[in-house]
Amino acid sequence: MERTEHNPGAGKPSYLSGERVRLRAVEPEDLAVMYEMENDPQMWDISNFIEPYSRQLLREYIAENRNDVFADKQLRLMVELRETSEVVGTVDLDNFEPRHQRAGVGIAIRRAWRGQGIAGEALGLMLDYAFGFLRLHQLYAYVPQENEASRRLFCSAGFRETAVLDDWIWREGRYVPVVLLQKIQLR
User: Fold this and answer.
1) Whether the Cβ atoms of residue 24 and residue 77 lie closer than 8 Å to each other
2) Residue 39 in domain
3) If you average pLDDT over each of 62-66, 67-71, 144-148, which comes out highest?
4) Domain tally, the chain
5) How many Å from the N-terminal Cα to the C-terminal Cα in the chain?
6) Among 105, 90, 109, which residue's Cα sits nearest to residue 27?
7) C-alpha angle with apex 126: 124 to 161, nearest 5 degrees?
8) What is the distance between the alpha carbons of residues 18 and 20, in angstroms, rounded to a whole number?
9) pTM above 0.90, yes or no
10) Do 24 and 78 touch, CB atoms closer than 8 A?
11) What is the DSSP pairing of strand 160-171 with strand 87-97?
């Protein structure tokens, strides 16, 4: 496994703010965007959802969310455009393991904003935060093998494809493999 060195926060005013986007905590006014994104069946494969989320359930999540990765073992940040404050996606840490200093990472960008480099910038900010501020040793992601755009996104951010998990996701009447991608931080 090749290990990479990451330069957190280089030339940035904060871990969570870039040139075009910033990452921020979930707010009550994010309900409509979260409802749209969480209830998109095309996203369910990667999130393991099996049913739609109600507005009430999402309201409760927002109200009870502490945004404390150590307590919750997960962290959701909204991706918003700096210029307009429009929410264009989410980026998550999940399955956080403080003892092993690792977490899963996932990103979802609303359809209208895909293909514009926003995912790459948001993922880069999350890497800065995870490695520079949280001092994690490793991040990993599971991406369906056929999702070449997501695989390119993670590889361009320094992740390496380290395994293929056969028959991992049931999609449209068949099992499909996923690729495990990892990024290990040098200290």
Assistant:
1) yes
2) yes
3) 144-148
4) 1
5) 15
6) 90
7) 65
8) 6
9) no
10) yes
11) unpaired
